Amino acid sequence: MKAATSSYVKSAMEPSQYPADGRPEFAFVGRSNVGKSSLLNVLLGQKGLSKTSSRPGKTQTVNFFDVNARIYFVDLSGYGYAKVPLQLKERWGKAMTAYLRDRAPLRLVLQLVDARHKPTEKDDEMLDLLEGAHVPTVVVATKIDKVKRSERAKNLRRIRETLGLDGEAALVPFSSVTKEGVKEVWRIIGELSKDSV
Ligand code: GTP
Ligand code: MG
């Protein structure tokens, strides 16, 4: 599966603003700056579709992208960015949590962690929230191009151990630069949207 057509649909703060047509949704979560928007752009083959930035906190609220007029990709604001005013952070946090907990069309969450670092408490909390909400989740290790070959296995193992992923759980090494992992992410999305794409 791949994206023949894709376009930005809308950004929503309230559930009443979400698309109402019930198409399957695939959401991308992770710390600020982990590479959510970059991954989305690479999957969709459109560079500027979701705005990226070297400064954390670029993506705000819940952003819907139409893919092939069949499914939606949902880019969520990054968590763990300290410099955002508390009030705003709480507002985004609430919007994001409300989306993840209660969204019926949500088929899968792709949780992104930086392949270079040990996942944080916030990453673990997010996985717990998803588990509690019974949302299927796949972990994607981003920026793998920045990890030396010799460190790869060790870093991936550290991610598994810190997040408590068992051997069966998918962990996809990914790079928006080299495009490693693009096929595998599409395969997983394709599998879960078989009846609709
Ligand atoms: P927020 O919207 O702020 O939460 O960030 P984000 O998770 O959407 O991250 P974004 O895609 O904006 O990327 C953040 C920075 O990391 C940018 O400077 C990207 O160019 C860089 N980046 C993203 N993915 C990769 C990757 O796979 N490899 C490398 N080397 N850099 C990457
Ligand atoms: Mg972003």
Description:
By secondary structure, the protein is α/β, with parallel strands linked by helices. The relative contact order is 0.19. It has helices spanning 36-44, 86-102, 121-132, 149-163, 182-192, and strands at 6-12, 25-30, 62-67, 71-76, 106-114, 137-142, 171-173. The chain has a 7-stranded mixed β-sheet with strand order 1-3-4-2-5-6-7, sandwiched between helices. It is globular. It contains 5 helices and 7 strands, in the order ββαββαβαβαβα. 32% of the residues lie in helices and 22% in strands. Guanosine-5'-triphosphate binds next to α1.
Instruction: Label the overall shape.
Output: globular
Q: Briefly note the structural class of the backbone.
A: alpha/beta
Main sheet strand line-up: 1-3-4-2-5-6-7
Largest sheet: 7 strands, mixed
Distance between the termini: 8 Å
How much helical structure, as a percent, in the residues?
A: 25-40%
pLDDT below 50 for ≥5 consecutive residues: which ranges?
none
| Overall number of strands | 7
**How many helices does DSSP assign?**
5
Beta content: 15-25%
State mean pLDDT (0 to 100 scale). 89
Please identify the oligomeric state.
Answer: single chain
Global Rg: 16 Å
- Which distinct ligands sit in these coordinates? guanosine-5'-triphosphate, magnesium ion
What is the N-to-C order of secondary-structure elements (H for helix, E for strand)?
A: EEHEEHEHEHEH
